[in-house]
Design goal:
Layout: E1 17-22, H1 26-32, E2 40-46, H2 50-60, E3 63-65, H3 68-71, E4 77-80, H4 87-96, E5 100-103, H5 119-140, E6 144-146, H6 154-166, H7 190-193, H8 197-200, H9 203-220, E7 229-235, E8 259-265
Parallel strand pairs: 1-2, 1-4, 2-3, 4-5, 5-6
Antiparallel strand pairs: 7-8
Helix pairs in contact: 4-5, 6-9
């Protein structure tokens, strides 16, 4: 996990960075176990549910705050581990307060009804919101860190090194993420997650693929190589009539897919 550097217009700090956790679920606990010692210290947590934030605060010996707004004056950076539907709002609040941002995956998404919006409308809505976020963050001067750690896997970094040294062309990349089900109680609810396995799990193998093609482009061409076309198929395998539930897989998907295949052409 990258630690933000102080920027013009943002909070300045000396010594360990004071970090505030937004969210008190599985992701926050996982992050707590991996905060770099000596570089950052978690000083507070906030979550809409009082019992969650109070329990988290007691477990880790930190301060519980009733809201993000209440916590922001006391931290240098926030680690946003809340459900995806809240990401944009919390990023804006932090940026406007001059607080640096670490954001969990997925970065953002569309949380309206997929039944009443066309795919083009969904895409345009997300693009507009991302443009607004980009402007708010740029004007604030804060550092934004997208916490997708798969790009730092030794195998991915080794491939990056090979590409940069040899300027070789990558012809084909294949990634897979298999999981028995998310730990989040709201996983599988479109209005909260913005999708199912494609966005929530597929982002893990997809990000190193985008990363390596970008590195290849910079090494060979002096510019990033970006996707030219994308297609996808999604299914809900656990809802099929022939599915045998042996208790190993999560099946509580309200209105999202549990399987997806994505094809990206560069």
């Amino acid at each position: 996990m990258a630690i933000p550097n102080t920027s013009v217009g943002a909070k300045r700090f000396s010594g360990p960075l004071r970090l505030g956790m937004i969210g008190a679920g599985f992701a926050s606990k996982f992050h707590m176990e991996n905060i770099p010692a000596g570089k950052a210290v978690v000083v507070g947590v906030t979550s809409p549910r009082a019992e969650s934030r109070e329990g988290f605060a007691k477990q880790y010996g930190i301060q519980a705050y009733a809201s993000v707004e209440e916590m922001l004056p006391h931290v240098d950076a926030v680690d946003i581990c809340s459900p995806p539907s809240s990401h944009a709002r919390y990023m804006k609040l932090a940026a406007q307060a001059g607080v640096h941002i670490i954001i969990e995956k997925p970065f953002h998404g569309f949380f309206g009804s997929p039944e009443t919006n066309t795919k083009q409308q969904m895409l345009e809505a997300v693009r507009g919101e991302l443009a607004e976020l980009r402007e708010v963050i740029a004007q604030s001067g804060v550092t934004l860190g997208y916490a997708e750690n798969c790009v730092y896997a030794p195998s991915v970094q080794k491939e990056r090194e090979v590409v940069e040294r040899t300027k070789a062309q990558i012809l084909r990349l294949q990634g897979e993420e298999s999981h028995n089900g998310s730990h989040s109680p709201v996983y599988g609810i479109w209005a909260v997650q913005g999708g199912g396995s494609l966005i929530a799990k597929g982002c893990h193998p997809l990000t190193p693929i985008l990363y390596l093609k970008r590195k290849e482009g910079m090494a060979r061409l002096g510019r990033p190589i970006r996707p030219a076309a994308v297609s996808a198929r999604t299914h809900t395998i656990t809802k099929l009539p022939g599915f045998e539930d042996r208790g190993f897989l999560r099946t509580t998907y309200q209105d999202t897919e549990d399987y997806a295949f994505l094809h990206v052409v560069f």
